[in-house]
Specification:
single chain, formyl-coa transferase, domain 3, 2 domains, three-stranded antiparallel sheet, 11 strands
Length: 403
């Protein structure tokens, strides 16, 4: 393993090469970097990862997505289509633990950077390959964006209101699930390497990562012929468990579908008789009369402010929670106490806030050292300090568009 560097976390003895761009591969790299791995991200000279320009808001023309997904990484420029650049990767691989790539299958092989080639150089290398459809199968050569993987994995069909077309989650959930599975696979492969002395390929397909989260969806159809449908904010026949309005125009999720909890909710509403009414007394009965019961609760909730509702519900031991936006997150005492959101210095924007590292490790927590670096910010470190390429040779590489 690579010698430790000045980072905190359980992975400080790992060196990672990150190739590829956008989100599925780079989010895996972010997770590794968050927990202390040295992640060297190679980007196209003069262009960089498109994530440097993505995002809804761009104050001063700066992406607010890149500072997060690029955090804790080192950035070096390299044109992987050039044979000399490919040789640089082969040289660096000798002392690398994990290589992440999310190109279409076959791309790395065309560059003589496939696992067969690289494992001859370093048999302990773990190669993480993130794609839409995996490295094999009839769809493997297709272009595979996260949205397509979400559709194929079954997620898109069940999201949204039943009166509308399938909707989407407001984040790139397919890419991020694939990255999480890639991260998990990388850690398992590193663990196995301690026994076998050899690395292996981690093949993380977006559609399979999504499929892995689909609970009993496939089995329900296979055994019972049941197809899950879109249900909006509710689970059919599970009531009350819905989003309710407040007098100050907030949205509060109340989950009181268990019999004992519903009795407490009825008491909080000053309508204890609801829990004795045969239409609402049992889980099954409440499920049959879900719409009318939710309407009754919404009439009650709209008479009270969020603060009053939360106090009443908490006092009666009823699970509830505000539908948070970023505004509420920044003001919330629980977020503040756990430092779930932290402030990180940006070289041009000043201090900016972002989510902290998760999960929490008691003895070897990671840390956010810096936001996503400037393009090629660590070229000197990589090409001079690590690889020892002479300055005149580096200059030649710059002039030829190799780095």
């Amino acid at each position: 393993m690579h010698p430790q560097h000045d980072r905190k976390g359980p992975l400080t003895d790992l060196r990672v090469i990150e190739l590829g761009q956008l989100l599925a591969g780079p989010f895996c790299g972010q997770l590794l970097a968050d927990f202390g791995a040295e992640v060297i991200k190679f980007e196209q000279p003069g262009v960089g990862d498109p994530m440097r320009n993505w995002g809804q808001e761009k104050p001063y023309g700066k992406s607010l997505w890149w500072p997060v997904v690029g955090r804790n990484k080192k950035s070096a420029t390299l044109n992987l289509r050039q044979p000399e650049a490919q040789q640089i990767i082969r040289t660096l691989v000798k002392d690398t633990d994990i290589l992440i790539e999310n190109f279409r299958p076959g791309t790395m092989e065309r560059w003589n950077l496939g696992y067969e080639d690289l494992s001859e150089i370093n048999p302990r290398l773990v190669m993480v390959r993130v794609t839409g459809f995996g490295q094999t199968g009839p769809y493997s050569a297709r272009a595979g964006y996260g949205s397509i993987g979400e559709a194929m994995g079954g997620l898109r069909y069940i999201i949204g209101d039943p009166s509308t077309q399938p909707s989407r989650v407001g984040i790139s959930i397919g890419d991020e699930l694939a990255a999480l599975h890639a991260f998990m696979g990388a850690m398992m492969a590193i663990h196995a390497r301690e026994r076998t002395g050899r690395g292996q390929i981690v093949d993380s397909a977006i559609y399979e990562a999504v499929l892995n989260m689909m609970e009993s969806l496939v089995t329900e159809y296979d055994v019972a012929g049941y197809v899950r449908e879109r249900t909006g904010p509710i689970l059919p026949n599970v009531s009350p468990s819905n989003v309710f309005q407040t007098s100050d125009d907030k949205l509060l999720l109340i989950a009181a579908n268990q019999d004992t909890v519903f009795k407490r909710l009825a008491a909080a509403m000053d309508q204890p008789e609801l829990a004795e009414n045969e239409r609402y007394a049992t889980h099954s009965a409440r499920g049959k009369h879900q719409a009318e019961l939710d309407a009754l609760i919404n009439d009650w909730s709209r008479e009270h402010s969020l603060a009053v509702l939360e106090e009443k519900l908490e006092r009666h031991g009823i699970p509830c929670g505000l539908i948070f936006t970023a505004r509420e997150m920044l003001d919330n005492p629980h977020f503040k106490d756990r430092e779930a959101i932290v402030e990180v210095e940006h070289p041009e924007l000043g201090p900016i806030k972002m989510q902290n590292i998760a999960p929490r490790l008691s003895d070897t927590p990671g840390e956010i050292c810096h936001v996503g670096p400037a393009l090629g910010e660590h070229n000197d470190y990589v090409y001079s300090n690590i690889l020892g390429i002479p300055e005149d040779k580096q200059k030649q590489f710059y002039e030829c568009g190799i780095i």
